[in-house]
Amino acid sequence: MWCDRGFTGNIALKPLRQAKQLATYLKLVLNRTLMSRIGAVLASGAFAALKDRMDPRKHNGGVFLGLNGVWSRPRRHGCVGFATAIDVAIEMVRNDLVNKIKTDVLSMAKQRRRKRNSMRRSMIMVLVQPAAAGDDQ
Q1: Residue spans of alpha helices (H) in 43-78
Q2: What pairs with residue 62 in β-bridges?
Q3: How many CB atoms lie within 10 A of CB 85?
Q4: Could you report the per-residue pLDDT of 37-69, keeping only the tens digit for each?
Q5: What predicted TM-score, i.e. pTM, was given to this entire model?
Q6: Tens digit of pLDDT for each residue in 2-12?
Q7: Residue 62 in contact with residue 76, Cβ under 8 Å?
Q8: How far is CA 72 from the centre of its chain?
Q9: Cα–Cα distance measured from residue 22 to residue 120, given in angstroms and rounded to the nearest whole number
Q10: What are phi and psi of 136, to 5 degrees?
Q11: Residue 108 CB-density burial (10 A; 0-12 exposed, 13-18 middle, 19+ buried)
Q12: Vertex 83, ends 68 and 95: CA angle to 5°?
């Protein structure tokens, strides 16, 4: 299989560049006036949490959902990514994510069956309806 890594790499880098540009604009705006600086100090905890949440060393992996369990796999080796992957897996188990997904999928399947059956009944009623009096056929 042929893959243009340059093109794929450019697509992957676009959001990174936009995030860096956003951070630059945010710093400029938050340093403009005294009130914006005070606001930045008050929001510093939220900014730190956002930075931590977007740290690719921590949140760079994949989640595999099986029929009966979860597996969180860090993409890179290292203590931070591995520990985060374990935390993610624990959180998914604690929140019963697999059963919630099963319930949602079953619910969607039931809704789809009901809709399909309703459409079939409507089509049968149209096909079976007697001709109105006075219709020449």
Answers
A1: 44-53
A2: 73
A3: 21
A4: 999 999 999 988 988 877 767 766 666 666 677
A5: 0.43
A6: 445 556 566 66
A7: no
A8: 15
A9: 52
A10: -95, 125
A11: exposed
A12: 40
Which residue reads 């921590």 in tokens?
58
Burial of 65 (0-12, 13-18, 19+ CB in 10 A): middle
CA angle 113–95–45, rounded 5-degree value: 125
Q: What is the DSSP string of 76-125?
A: S-SHHHHHHHHHHHHHHHHTTHHHHHHHHHHHHHHHHHHHHHHHHHHHHH
What are the tokens at 47? 């900014």
Q: 48-62, 75-89, 107-121, 123-137: lowest mean pLDDT where?
A: 123-137
Sole residue written with tokens 């938050």: 30
- Structure-block tokens of residue 130: 């007697």
User: Closest Cα to residue 105, out of 65, 70, 73, 71?
Assistant: 65
Q: Are 65 and 98 in contact (CB under 8 A)?
A: yes
